[in-house]
Design brief:
The structure is a single chain. By secondary structure, the chain is an all-alpha fold. Helix content is 59%, strand content 0%. It has 2 helices and no strands. It has helices spanning 9-33, 40-43. The chain starts with 8 loop residues before the first helix and ends in a 6-residue tail after the last helix. The mean pLDDT is 82.
Length: 49
């Protein structure tokens, strides 16, 4: 499949890939830190069984 004009792999590797990694890290950080605002009984681990 030919690459569209104006698209280069170096642009993807130097701009889009790091931005995607930072965005994914920020999303994971938000998901983990969101437990701060949960009520105490919801922040506890789920019971087993």
């Amino acid at each position: 499949m030919p690459t569209p004009p104006g698209f280069s792999v170096s642009f993807f590797r130097s701009t889009l890939l790091p931005a995607g990694i930072v965005l994914l890290f920020g999303l994971a950080l938000f998901a983990v830190s969101a437990r701060i605002w949960l009520p105490g009984d919801m922040a506890a681990p789920a019971p087993i069984g």
